[in-house]
Amino acid sequence: MKAAVFHEYEGPVEIAEVAKPELQDSSVLVEVYAASLNPIDNILRAGYLKQMLELTFPHVKGYDVSGTVVEIGENVKSVKIGDDVFARPNQMDAGSVAEFARIQEDELAIKPSNMTHEQAASVPLAGLTAWQALVTKGKIKKGSKVLIHAGSGGVGTLAIQIAKHFGAFVATTTSGKNAGFVKELGADLIINYTTQNFEDELSDYDLVIDTIGGETLARSFKVLKKGGTMVSVKSQDNDNLAEKYGVHFEWFFMSPDGKILSELAKLISQGTVKTVIDSIFRMNQAAEAFDRLATGRAKGKIVIAVK
Fold first, then answer.
1. Are 63 and 122 in contact (CB under 8 A)?
2. What is the pLDDT of residues 94-104, one digit of tens each?
3. Tens digits of residue pLDDT in 182-237
4. For residue 34, what are the CA distances in angstroms to 10, 67, 286?
5. d(CA 76, CA 71)
6. Of the four listed, 123, 213, 215, 233, which is most buried by Cβ atoms within 10 Å?
7. How far apart are CA 212 and CA 290, in angstroms?
8. Helix count and strand count (H, E) for the chain
9. What separation in angstroms does the CA of 200 have from each of 3, 203, 204, 220?
10. Is the CA virtual torsion 28, 30, 35, 39 positive or negative?
């Protein structure tokens, strides 16, 4: 099958012939219609995580997938051949910018009929990250005051909408040119990070969702009330700051979860949550798509239409 691969760390993204994934008893084989890109794709390609997660080559790119089931393992009960599904495959099954992908049954969800494959492919990793940060780790509830960093990014666009669904008051950081955009998504208070210091504008927040790390994360502790919660997908070691400010600190990396994806699919099909797509590329334009990702300026998700 054809797939978008790179052959070495920091190597170029190319389209190459690779072996089709082998079906497992608990998995399905999906003909891929669309995939989407995430920062982790370029982080892995650059080799920043190779001591933690060493890759084999050629390495097939992509952690988000939407497509049609063409084979099912003998233990699979919840889906059938011909079903349209979407998922964030686990690390062993990752490699969705390809003609076929393997997905474990408990990691997939049925794609709503009123979602395109491109829309569905834009959701899994970012949507699961947003949901698990807000709900699983952040314990969000009605009336919570939440700061979501990078509101116009892949995670931020979904996190704002999910937080509003749960009845939270949402502040977000973004550039001035995206202020109207994040307001349309539901943000109540918008901080232009190019002209404002968010820690001077905000106080007594229940929850901060950090997708940036570094200095931004350190400054974010100041906006939390005593007993508040900082959830970060970027930095693991901030217990000293958490103790200093009297707050809880949670670091996590999202986990594939078909049940949560089904909840998100329901909200999207109802129009409660809208997908946000920055751009769509064909598979033979994969290198250009990854160049777009590397700019860090995508508004929403970058999608690759495979079929």
1. no
2. 999 999 999 99
3. 999 999 999 999 999 999 999 999 999 999 999 999 999 999 999 999 999 988 78
4. 24, 7, 12
5. 10
6. 123
7. 19
8. 10, 16
9. 47, 8, 12, 10
10. positive
